[in-house]
Design brief:
Blueprint (H helix, E strand, L loop, with lengths): L1 H27 L8 H15 L5 E5 L4 E5 L1 H8 L19 H9 L1 H8 L17 H26 L9 H6 L12 H7 L9 H10 L1
Antiparallel strand pairs: 1-2
Helix pairs in contact: 1-2
């Protein structure tokens, strides 16, 4: 994991330098050079924001020139953390939630965050609320979100075999060298991905699954 992180960082740095070199050349060319600190800054910001490595460079912009160099101290500081994986300590015991399962739960937080986003979208269709205190209204909405997430989780699990989603988690886990390594697809999931199966679910089937759960 440390080697992979180092490799990715170096690739991003080199890709950024390649684009920044073009800006250096543009400011020093004889015909129609890129001038103006603001104009140069806009062009540089597009490159920096694309690769998100601004902190790793020392950039100097002037009215008629542009230069840059790597910020070795910050790169070295970040490199010290390569290979480290930090998660929140859980209060659950080992029998309830093992270290491996804790890492898996941490990696699946995006699904929980997606459920929370239902607060701000039309996904969560809450009916009339007959509560008169702020805490009860919040509790009502929270329970609606949990129930919506519960139904979605079961539907994804039931439909996984006919979609491109992973449904052979044991085989996928066996392909990983470490629990914190990037996820790898099982052979079953790869075979499904190679088939041009449309991921369209009939609303009637979806509604039937909803009421079955």
């Amino acid at each position: 994991m440390a080697a992979e992180r180092k490799k990715n960082r170096e690739e991003l740095l080199q890709a950024t330098e390649k684009e920044l070199d073009k800006i250096v050349a543009a400011t020093s060319r004889k015909t129609r050079p890129l001038k103006g600190e603001d104009n140069i800054g806009v062009t540089v910001d597009k490159v920096i924001n694309k690769f998100n490595v601004e902190k790793h460079f020392i950039i100097e912009r002037k009215d008629n020139s542009f230069s840059y160099q790597r910020n070795k101290s910050k790169i070295d500081t970040e490199a010290v953390l390569d290979g480290l994986y930090i998660i929140i300590i859980t209060s659950l015991d080992e029998e309830t939630l093992s270290a491996t399962d804790t890492v898996k739960a941490d990696k699946n937080l995006s699904q929980v965050e997606q459920a929370f986003r239902s607060y701000k979208t039309v996904d969560l269709k809450v009916r009339q609320i007959y509560h008169y205190t702020a805490e009860r209204v919040k509790a009502h909405i929270f329970l609606c979100m949990l129930s919506d997430y519960y139904v979605e989780w079961h539907m994804r699990s039931l439909l996984a075999p006919i979609l491109f989603d992973e449904d052979d988690w044991e085989a996928a886990a066996a392909r990983k060298e470490f629990v914190v390594s990037p996820a790898k697809k099982s052979e079953k999931a790869k075979n499904k991905a190679n088939k041009s199966v449309p991921q369209i679910i009939c609303p009637f089937i979806a509604s039937k699954l909803y009421w079955m759960i």
